[in-house]
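assembly run, all chains below
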Amino acid sequence: MSETNLYPGLNLGDGHGEAHDQAETTVFGFWVFLMSDLIIFGILFASYASYLDPIGMAGGPGPQDLFDFKSVAIQTAFLLVGGAAYGDVSLAVKYDQGRGKVAAWLLLCAALGAGFLFFEVKDFITQAGKGGTPQVSGWLSSYWTLVGLHGVHVLSGILWIFAMIAQIATRGLDGVVKVRLSMLGVFWHFLDLIWVGIFSLVFLVPLA
Amino acid sequence: MTKPNTGELDPQDSAGSEIKSYTIGFTASLFLTVGAFAAAMSDLPLRWKIACICAAAILQIVVHMRNFLHLSFSGGQSREDLLLVLFSATLLVIMAGGTWYIMSDLSGRMHDTDAAMHEVQPR
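ok done. output:
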Protein backbone atom coordinates (compact mmCIF):
# COMPACT_ATOMS: atom_id res chain seq x y z
CA MET A 1 0.00 0.00 0.00
CA SER A 2 1.46 3.31 -1.03
CA GLU A 3 -0.77 5.71 0.90
CA THR A 4 0.00 6.26 4.56
CA ASN A 5 -2.22 4.50 7.07
CA LEU A 6 -3.78 7.06 9.38
CA TYR A 7 -4.87 4.50 11.98
CA PRO A 8 -4.66 0.77 12.72
CA GLY A 9 -6.86 -1.54 10.71
CA LEU A 10 -7.97 -1.33 7.12
CA ASN A 11 -8.32 2.42 6.43
CA LEU A 12 -11.53 3.62 4.86
CA GLY A 13 -9.61 5.83 2.46
CA ASP A 14 -10.17 9.31 1.08
CA GLY A 15 -13.25 8.21 -0.82
CA HIS A 16 -15.17 8.14 2.46
CA GLY A 17 -14.53 11.82 3.17
CA GLU A 18 -15.21 12.89 6.72
CA ALA A 19 -15.61 9.37 8.08
CA HIS A 20 -12.01 8.63 7.11
CA ASP A 21 -10.72 11.73 8.93
CA GLN A 22 -12.95 11.12 11.95
CA ALA A 23 -11.69 7.56 12.15
CA GLU A 24 -8.12 8.81 12.57
CA THR A 25 -8.75 10.21 16.06
CA THR A 26 -11.47 7.78 17.14
CA VAL A 27 -9.72 4.59 16.12
CA PHE A 28 -6.44 5.89 17.54
CA GLY A 29 -8.18 6.46 20.88
CA PHE A 30 -9.56 2.96 20.77
CA TRP A 31 -6.11 1.65 19.89
CA VAL A 32 -4.79 3.31 23.08
CA PHE A 33 -7.38 1.32 25.05
CA LEU A 34 -6.38 -1.90 23.28
CA MET A 35 -2.72 -1.36 24.07
CA SER A 36 -3.55 -0.96 27.78
CA ASP A 37 -5.61 -4.14 27.42
CA LEU A 38 -2.50 -5.73 25.95
CA ILE A 39 -0.58 -4.83 29.10
CA ILE A 40 -3.23 -6.56 31.24
CA PHE A 41 -3.02 -9.68 29.10
CA GLY A 42 0.78 -9.51 29.17
CA ILE A 43 0.85 -9.46 32.97
CA LEU A 44 -1.59 -12.38 33.09
CA PHE A 45 0.66 -14.27 30.67
CA ALA A 46 3.61 -13.57 32.95
CA SER A 47 1.80 -14.87 36.05
CA TYR A 48 0.64 -17.96 34.13
CA ALA A 49 4.23 -18.66 33.06
CA SER A 50 5.42 -18.16 36.63
CA TYR A 51 2.90 -20.64 38.04
CA LEU A 52 3.65 -23.21 35.36
CA ASP A 53 5.68 -25.57 37.55
CA PRO A 54 4.83 -28.32 40.07
CA ILE A 55 4.86 -25.83 42.96
CA GLY A 56 2.41 -23.52 41.19
CA MET A 57 0.10 -26.46 40.56
CA ALA A 58 0.09 -27.21 44.31
CA GLY A 59 -0.74 -30.89 43.90
CA GLY A 60 -3.86 -30.10 41.86
CA PRO A 61 -4.54 -31.34 38.33
CA GLY A 62 -2.02 -30.17 35.70
CA PRO A 63 -2.11 -29.42 31.97
CA GLN A 64 -1.85 -33.08 30.96
CA ASP A 65 -4.94 -33.90 33.04
CA LEU A 66 -7.08 -30.98 31.93
CA PHE A 67 -6.22 -29.76 28.42
CA ASP A 68 -7.79 -31.23 25.31
CA PHE A 69 -5.53 -30.87 22.27
CA LYS A 70 -8.32 -31.33 19.73
CA SER A 71 -10.64 -28.80 21.35
CA VAL A 72 -7.87 -26.16 21.38
CA ALA A 73 -7.27 -26.80 17.67
CA ILE A 74 -11.00 -26.39 16.93
CA GLN A 75 -11.17 -23.12 18.91
CA THR A 76 -8.09 -21.82 17.11
CA ALA A 77 -9.65 -22.60 13.73
CA PHE A 78 -12.88 -20.80 14.68
CA LEU A 79 -11.03 -17.64 15.70
CA LEU A 80 -8.62 -17.63 12.77
CA VAL A 81 -11.41 -17.96 10.21
CA GLY A 82 -13.45 -15.42 12.20
CA GLY A 83 -10.59 -12.93 11.93
CA ALA A 84 -10.32 -13.45 8.19
CA ALA A 85 -14.10 -13.03 7.88
CA TYR A 86 -13.82 -9.58 9.43
CA GLY A 87 -11.41 -8.69 6.66
CA ASP A 88 -14.38 -9.16 4.33
CA VAL A 89 -16.49 -6.88 6.52
CA SER A 90 -13.87 -4.13 6.25
CA LEU A 91 -13.53 -4.58 2.49
CA ALA A 92 -17.32 -4.59 2.00
CA VAL A 93 -17.56 -1.30 3.94
CA LYS A 94 -14.64 0.30 2.15
CA TYR A 95 -15.88 -0.58 -1.34
CA ASP A 96 -19.55 0.22 -0.72
CA GLN A 97 -20.83 -3.27 -1.35
CA GLY A 98 -24.09 -2.52 0.42
CA ARG A 99 -25.42 -3.08 3.91
CA GLY A 100 -26.73 -6.57 3.20
CA LYS A 101 -23.27 -7.87 2.45
CA VAL A 102 -21.70 -6.09 5.43
CA ALA A 103 -24.35 -7.50 7.76
CA ALA A 104 -23.94 -11.00 6.31
CA TRP A 105 -20.17 -10.99 6.90
CA LEU A 106 -20.75 -9.59 10.41
CA LEU A 107 -23.18 -12.43 11.15
CA LEU A 108 -20.58 -14.95 9.96
CA CYS A 109 -18.03 -13.38 12.35
CA ALA A 110 -20.51 -13.59 15.23
CA ALA A 111 -21.32 -17.23 14.39
CA LEU A 112 -17.62 -18.18 14.32
CA GLY A 113 -17.05 -16.32 17.59
CA ALA A 114 -19.99 -18.16 19.13
CA GLY A 115 -18.56 -21.48 17.92
CA PHE A 116 -15.30 -20.61 19.63
CA LEU A 117 -17.08 -19.71 22.86
CA PHE A 118 -19.13 -22.92 22.78
CA PHE A 119 -16.01 -25.10 22.77
CA GLU A 120 -14.23 -22.90 25.31
CA VAL A 121 -17.12 -23.04 27.81
CA LYS A 122 -17.47 -26.79 27.19
CA ASP A 123 -13.78 -27.16 28.07
CA PHE A 124 -14.17 -25.04 31.19
CA ILE A 125 -17.07 -27.21 32.37
CA THR A 126 -15.15 -30.42 31.70
CA GLN A 127 -12.10 -29.05 33.51
CA ALA A 128 -14.15 -27.99 36.53
CA GLY A 129 -15.69 -31.49 36.55
CA LYS A 130 -12.19 -33.00 36.73
CA GLY A 131 -11.38 -30.88 39.79
CA GLY A 132 -9.66 -28.07 37.89
CA THR A 133 -11.52 -25.14 39.47
CA PRO A 134 -9.77 -21.77 39.90
CA GLN A 135 -9.36 -22.02 43.68
CA VAL A 136 -7.40 -25.30 43.54
CA SER A 137 -3.99 -23.83 42.70
CA GLY A 138 -2.21 -20.66 41.66
CA TRP A 139 -1.67 -22.12 38.22
CA LEU A 140 -5.39 -22.80 37.79
CA SER A 141 -6.30 -19.32 39.06
CA SER A 142 -4.03 -17.72 36.48
CA TYR A 143 -5.31 -20.06 33.76
CA TRP A 144 -8.99 -19.26 34.43
CA THR A 145 -8.30 -15.54 34.68
CA LEU A 146 -6.27 -15.31 31.47
CA VAL A 147 -8.38 -17.56 29.25
CA GLY A 148 -11.62 -16.42 30.88
CA LEU A 149 -10.78 -12.75 30.29
CA HIS A 150 -10.13 -13.50 26.62
CA GLY A 151 -13.46 -15.35 26.46
CA VAL A 152 -15.26 -12.36 27.97
CA HIS A 153 -13.64 -10.18 25.30
CA VAL A 154 -14.91 -12.48 22.55
CA LEU A 155 -18.39 -12.41 24.11
CA SER A 156 -18.40 -8.61 24.19
CA GLY A 157 -17.15 -8.64 20.59
CA ILE A 158 -20.17 -10.72 19.60
CA LEU A 159 -22.56 -8.39 21.46
CA TRP A 160 -20.86 -5.45 19.73
CA ILE A 161 -21.38 -7.15 16.34
CA PHE A 162 -25.12 -7.46 17.03
CA ALA A 163 -25.24 -3.83 18.15
CA MET A 164 -23.58 -2.84 14.86
CA ILE A 165 -25.98 -4.96 12.80
CA ALA A 166 -28.86 -3.17 14.54
CA GLN A 167 -27.25 0.21 13.77
CA ILE A 168 -26.71 -0.74 10.13
CA ALA A 169 -30.36 -1.71 9.92
CA THR A 170 -31.63 1.54 11.46
CA ARG A 171 -29.07 4.18 10.41
CA GLY A 172 -27.62 2.62 7.29
CA LEU A 173 -23.93 2.72 6.55
CA ASP A 174 -23.32 6.36 7.47
CA GLY A 175 -20.05 7.88 8.61
CA VAL A 176 -20.59 7.15 12.30
CA VAL A 177 -21.35 3.49 11.64
CA LYS A 178 -18.29 3.16 9.40
CA VAL A 179 -16.01 4.57 12.12
CA ARG A 180 -17.53 2.21 14.68
CA LEU A 181 -17.09 -0.75 12.33
CA SER A 182 -13.42 0.23 11.96
CA MET A 183 -13.03 0.13 15.75
CA LEU A 184 -14.80 -3.21 15.99
CA GLY A 185 -12.45 -4.56 13.32
CA VAL A 186 -9.35 -3.55 15.24
CA PHE A 187 -10.88 -5.10 18.39
CA TRP A 188 -11.76 -8.36 16.63
CA HIS A 189 -8.31 -8.77 15.06
CA PHE A 190 -6.70 -7.88 18.40
CA LEU A 191 -8.55 -10.80 20.07
CA ASP A 192 -7.15 -13.08 17.40
CA LEU A 193 -3.66 -11.84 18.19
CA ILE A 194 -4.10 -12.51 21.91
CA TRP A 195 -5.38 -16.00 21.12
CA VAL A 196 -2.15 -16.75 19.23
CA GLY A 197 -0.33 -16.12 22.51
CA ILE A 198 -2.84 -18.19 24.47
CA PHE A 199 -2.86 -21.30 22.31
CA SER A 200 0.94 -21.23 22.01
CA LEU A 201 1.96 -20.43 25.57
CA VAL A 202 -0.99 -21.61 27.65
CA PHE A 203 -1.86 -24.82 25.82
CA LEU A 204 0.91 -26.00 23.48
CA VAL A 205 4.00 -25.32 25.60
CA PRO A 206 2.77 -27.29 28.68
CA LEU A 207 1.46 -30.10 26.46
CA ALA A 208 4.66 -30.34 24.40
CA MET B 1 -9.32 18.95 7.38
CA THR B 2 -12.15 17.48 5.35
CA LYS B 3 -11.70 16.05 1.93
CA PRO B 4 -14.49 16.13 -0.61
CA ASN B 5 -16.36 12.89 -0.97
CA THR B 6 -15.94 12.28 -4.64
CA GLY B 7 -17.65 8.94 -4.60
CA GLU B 8 -14.99 7.60 -6.91
CA LEU B 9 -13.42 4.70 -5.13
CA ASP B 10 -11.51 2.97 -7.92
CA PRO B 11 -12.51 -0.34 -6.36
CA GLN B 12 -10.65 -2.75 -8.62
CA ASP B 13 -7.47 -0.74 -8.26
CA SER B 14 -6.59 -1.32 -4.62
CA ALA B 15 -9.16 -3.93 -3.59
CA GLY B 16 -7.05 -6.50 -5.40
CA SER B 17 -3.94 -5.77 -3.38
CA GLU B 18 -5.93 -5.64 -0.13
CA ILE B 19 -7.61 -8.97 -0.76
CA LYS B 20 -4.18 -10.36 -1.59
CA SER B 21 -2.80 -9.00 1.70
CA TYR B 22 -5.62 -10.64 3.69
CA THR B 23 -5.17 -13.91 1.80
CA ILE B 24 -1.43 -13.94 2.44
CA GLY B 25 -2.08 -13.17 6.12
CA PHE B 26 -4.64 -15.95 6.45
CA THR B 27 -2.50 -18.53 4.64
CA ALA B 28 0.60 -17.65 6.65
CA SER B 29 -1.36 -17.80 9.93
CA LEU B 30 -2.78 -21.17 8.93
CA PHE B 31 0.67 -22.60 8.19
CA LEU B 32 2.17 -21.17 11.39
CA THR B 33 -0.71 -22.52 13.49
CA VAL B 34 -0.53 -25.98 11.94
CA GLY B 35 3.25 -25.84 12.33
CA ALA B 36 2.98 -25.00 16.04
CA PHE B 37 0.50 -27.85 16.67
CA ALA B 38 2.64 -30.26 14.63
CA ALA B 39 5.73 -29.25 16.61
CA ALA B 40 3.89 -29.84 19.89
CA MET B 41 2.86 -33.34 18.80
CA SER B 42 6.20 -34.26 17.26
CA ASP B 43 8.98 -36.36 18.80
CA LEU B 44 11.50 -33.53 18.89
CA PRO B 45 13.38 -32.84 22.14
CA LEU B 46 11.33 -30.66 24.51
CA ARG B 47 13.64 -27.66 24.15
CA TRP B 48 13.23 -27.69 20.37
CA LYS B 49 9.47 -28.12 20.54
CA ILE B 50 9.13 -25.07 22.80
CA ALA B 51 11.49 -23.06 20.59
CA CYS B 52 9.42 -23.95 17.50
CA ILE B 53 6.13 -23.04 19.21
CA CYS B 54 7.47 -19.68 20.42
CA ALA B 55 9.02 -18.84 17.05
CA ALA B 56 5.75 -19.68 15.26
CA ALA B 57 3.80 -17.54 17.76
CA ILE B 58 6.06 -14.50 17.31
CA LEU B 59 5.96 -14.84 13.53
CA GLN B 60 2.19 -15.17 13.56
CA ILE B 61 1.78 -12.09 15.76
CA VAL B 62 3.86 -10.12 13.26
CA VAL B 63 1.70 -11.49 10.42
CA HIS B 64 -1.48 -10.46 12.26
CA MET B 65 -0.14 -6.95 12.88
CA ARG B 66 0.94 -6.50 9.28
CA ASN B 67 -1.89 -8.13 7.37
CA PHE B 68 -4.93 -7.85 9.64
CA LEU B 69 -4.24 -4.76 11.76
CA HIS B 70 -2.43 -3.10 8.82
CA LEU B 71 0.38 -1.75 10.96
CA SER B 72 3.30 -1.03 8.73
CA PHE B 73 6.79 -0.89 10.14
CA SER B 74 8.31 0.68 7.07
CA GLY B 75 7.05 4.24 7.24
CA GLY B 76 3.59 3.74 5.76
CA GLN B 77 2.04 4.27 9.20
CA SER B 78 1.16 7.32 11.20
CA ARG B 79 3.92 7.90 13.72
CA GLU B 80 1.73 7.85 16.86
CA ASP B 81 0.37 4.39 16.13
CA LEU B 82 3.81 2.96 15.76
CA LEU B 83 5.19 4.77 18.82
CA LEU B 84 2.28 3.46 20.88
CA VAL B 85 2.91 -0.11 19.79
CA LEU B 86 6.62 0.17 20.53
CA PHE B 87 5.98 1.84 23.90
CA SER B 88 3.49 -0.87 24.88
CA ALA B 89 5.93 -3.56 23.80
CA THR B 90 8.64 -1.95 25.95
CA LEU B 91 6.33 -1.85 28.97
CA LEU B 92 5.43 -5.48 28.37
CA VAL B 93 9.05 -6.57 28.20
CA ILE B 94 9.82 -4.75 31.43
CA MET B 95 6.75 -5.83 33.39
CA ALA B 96 5.92 -9.29 32.01
CA GLY B 97 9.52 -10.30 31.33
CA GLY B 98 10.62 -8.87 34.68
CA THR B 99 7.87 -10.72 36.55
CA TRP B 100 8.76 -13.98 34.89
CA TYR B 101 12.48 -13.50 35.54
CA ILE B 102 12.06 -12.57 39.19
CA MET B 103 9.64 -15.41 39.89
CA SER B 104 11.74 -18.07 38.18
CA ASP B 105 14.88 -16.79 39.90
CA LEU B 106 13.08 -16.88 43.24
CA SER B 107 11.77 -20.35 42.51
CA GLY B 108 15.27 -21.50 41.64
CA ARG B 109 16.68 -20.09 44.88
CA MET B 110 13.93 -21.31 47.19
CA HIS B 111 12.86 -24.68 45.84
CA ASP B 112 15.47 -26.29 43.61
CA THR B 113 17.89 -26.22 46.47
CA ASP B 114 18.79 -29.93 46.62
CA ALA B 115 21.89 -29.50 44.50
CA ALA B 116 22.86 -26.25 46.17
CA MET B 117 22.37 -27.71 49.66
CA HIS B 118 24.77 -30.53 48.94
CA GLU B 119 27.35 -28.07 47.83
CA VAL B 120 27.02 -25.98 50.94
CA GLN B 121 26.46 -28.60 53.62
CA PRO B 122 29.95 -30.19 53.83
CA ARG B 123 31.40 -26.99 55.26
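Residues 72-208 of chain A form a domain with the Four Helix Bundle (Hemerythrin (Met), subunit A) fold (CATH 1.20.120.80).

The helical segments of chain A are 18-51, 54-57, 63-66, 69-94, 99-129, 138-171, 175-207.

not gonna interpret more than that til we talk
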